[in-house]
Design brief:
Structural class: alpha+beta
Radius of gyration: 21 Å
Distance between the termini: 27 Å
Number of helices: 6
Order of helices and strands: EEHHEHEEEHHEEEH
CATH topology of the largest domain: 60s Ribosomal Protein L30, Chain: A
Bound molecules: zinc ion
CATH architecture of the largest domain: 2-Layer Sandwich
Strand order of the largest sheet: 4-3-5-6-7
Shape: globular
């Protein structure tokens, strides 16, 4: 069984180097992208939607030309393990989701998907074997049409300097940039102060 042009083993190496660990969701995500692509007409330019922010966006980025950075992949975090590939101009596409009924036939996958076991109780090798054995059998593919509002390129429009932070931002966001409007993740106003002790860089691992 292959995922696109890759053997399962090659794909798992790709996951490891890109994502950091061979997450079960990413193996399933590979089958999801593969199934969606097989159901799209050849030779169309497609965009992608991931309906979750965990794992699945990385499968899309590994196996299609769509990335967050090039704007062809949108993450709409509904928390559903589903993706959609669609004609970027016409909106016609396919949606593939991990089917909660179909996983009932696969106990390890079901218990992982519904978090019925703690990570300690899980047997990662059995789970991986089951995922590979199941392949697309736990997935359902649907025809969808993406709303016009989501199609086409949306430019940033005019750019100005934010009167509060002095950084460039899209004028359409308002009189201040979105960070200065209260969306900033930082506790204090960032300072450029060479006398201050440098924060040590920490590499944080995990999934
Ligand atoms: Zn600002």
């Amino acid at each position: 069984m292959n995922i696109g042009p890759y053997s399962i083993e090659d794909y798992m190496h790709m996951i490891k180097s890109f994502h950091g660990n061979i997450a079960p969701g990413l193996i399933i995500g590979g089958f999801m992208v593969d199934l969606a692509k097989k159901n799209l007409p050849d030779e169309i330019l497609f965009d992608a939607i991931s309906e979750t922010s965990t794992c699945l966006p990385d499968a899309i980025q590994l196996l299609t030309p769509c990335t967050i950075g090039n704007g062809w992949l949108k993450v709409m975090n509904f928390g559903r393990y589903a993706l959609c590939l669609y004609d970027k101009y016409q909106g016609k596409g396919v949606r593939v989701y991990l089917d909660s009924d179909k996983v009932e036939n696969w106990p390890e996958i079901r218990d992982w998907f519904f978090k019925k076991k703690t990570r300690k109780e899980q047997d990662p090798n059995r789970l991986r074997d089951e995922i590979i054995e199941a392949g697309p059998d736990i997935l359902t593919c649907q025809r969808v049409v993406v709303e016009g509002a989501f199609l086409g390129k949306k430019g940033k429009g005019a750019i100005a300097k934010c009167p509060s932070c002095n950084e460039a931002y899209p004028v359409k966001d308002g009189t201040l940039c979105l960070a200065c409007q209260g969306g900033s993740p930082y506790r204090d106003t960032p300072r450029t102060d060479p006398t201050e002790e440098k924060p040590s860089l920490r590499i944080i691992t995990g999934d």
